[in-house]
Predict the 3D structure of the following.
Amino acid sequence: MAWILIALPLLAAAVAFLPGSVRFRVRLLPAVALLHLALLLAALWRRAPLPATAWLGLDALGSWTLLVISVLFCLCACYAPAYLALRPERPTRVFVTSFLSFLGLASLLAQARHPGLVWVAMETTTLATAPLIYFNHNRRSLEATWKYLIIGSVGIALALLGTLFLAYSAHMGRLEEPLLFPKLLAGAGDLSRPWLRAGFVLTLVGYGTKMGLAPLHTWKPDAYGESPGVIGALLAGGVTSCAFLALLRIYAVVAAAGELQFARELMVGMGLLSMVWAAVFMVRQLDIRRLLAYSSVEHMGILAFGIGIGGRAATFALFHLAANALVKGVLFMSAGNISRSYASKRLPYVTGAIRRTPVSGWLFFLGFLAITGTPPFAPFISEFNIAAGALAAPHLWAGVAFLVLLGGIFLAMSDTVVQVVFGTPNPNRVRTPYRDTVATTAPLVLALALSLTLGLWLPGPLTTMIRSAADQVEGRR
Amino acid sequence: MLTDLLIALIVLTNFSLVTTNRINKAIQVAVIQGVLLGLLPLAMGLGRHLHILLMVAAAVGVKGWLIPYLFRRATRKIRIHREVDPYIGFTSSLVLCALGTGLALLLASSLPLAPGTGFGLFVPASLSTLLTGFILLITRRKALTQVVGYLVLENGIYLFGLMLVEEMPMLVETGILLDLFVGIFVMGIVINHISVAFDSMDTRHLAELKD
């Protein structure tokens, strides 16, 4: 089963790369996405305990992350054909190939049981997604791609060094290859502490760069700002989730080795720093996509913060992974619709979206309310519980800072969002033929409905899965 | 003994890299560094493993031939030869690099080595090379010099990997080879596009996007 989830999207990517009919290629995308989700659900339905020597396999943490990615991917893939139809001048070949390869490599990452394999998968997802950022083929998208590749590659290189440090600490503890995670976790007590700590710092910086934690997020506003909305959604919900998972895998080893306190402090620090940084750059941000990119920096910060607080907050940080991915999908794709309709993504030009594209305008506004933690959407549940966990824990000040930052970010974002959605339309606006259609809005409505559902009711099997994933992260297993 | 000599030479190339203002020379020095590193496993007596020999061949081939070839094509295409007015001057970069090397020694002294191995110089040299790569990446304006920075950073990781390559060949070799591939990917594709779109690979042109 593990192989099919990886091979199916990669094979489909190879097929999409062959010259062929555009219609077939574009339809391949949602078909493969739905099939992947169905196969994943089937695999989760009959999940057997993994043998300790398996290189690939779905454990609770990997399953949960892959489920989030697969659902988001389905939503993006169902939206993509309508988007590509609006851009007939751009070749579909690279787009579809990169999209599908990402899904295959994310499945590899989620199932990888070896730190080296995790690293390989993370590196290849970076390469697979880089052509997507260059989708528009202009100077600005080239600049964004350049930054994404060079900063991302440096981050990934540091993560490799961190992985090698981890391997060296295992070597000092007389563990032998292959260093599968079960072996590392079981022998965590023997790992050499100085190397393990240094290795964790390096992987935090390295995978943190790919997640977009401040101060290593500088590629993010450019990459998200210059690529189409649907690609932004995949990057903000998919690639970041992959990097987060890669980081958590190492975090679990550090926790099992009894260095949980050290790792927690670093995570809380990085998390709060990201939120502060995001809040500062959101104030008077005129570009709606860059605004969303900073919101993504903020939410990566929330994830790191929640994990760092630990206990209940860590469980809800994992839940937040899904909440963030779904709502980011709604926001990026509706912002994409709005800017398509205005032929701009900047404030003085994009105002009064509610009249021009009512459905996308409402979706964008509701998405904004959801992401800033307004009940009853899913991000409210996770943010509330993370804050509650922080206020109960010994670091009260961190909880207070977290709440203050959430409030500040709400104000900073609302300033721009309210003008975009409800402002008076600019008299010199450009006329474009774009109007909302079912195909460009239905996937977004579905995503918002899902995040509303998760906010009100979490199915039992998912609760169990998140709980055991959180146990895994904190090394309680 | 030969190993120590090679490592000392590698650290010297670091200093040479941060002080040069000619891009061609920086590329040459990076190539020398890459080849020295490529030969290091042989000096360490690891030549008896076939898989390590293959990795050495790949590393020397890519760093000694393929990457300089790509660089030459790129510089011929756009005719730029000098790194002008970097964000931090050449003298200050040298001081930074020296401080970085000191810091690397300090950091390395707090990381214990497995008993009975003669890797005393590996960790500080690897960290120092890593920091040199960082300095080049952060303080230079030309896309080409930034790629040199990435290659130097990667050299630092390669040097560290050599400490483990005998015990954990699979992990180290996959990592190193994939990193090399990324270097080529970044070099080949992006630089091709940048030179077409901008006629010069100054990343100052790549500064439209900011807040």
Observations:
- The mean pLDDT of chain A is 92.
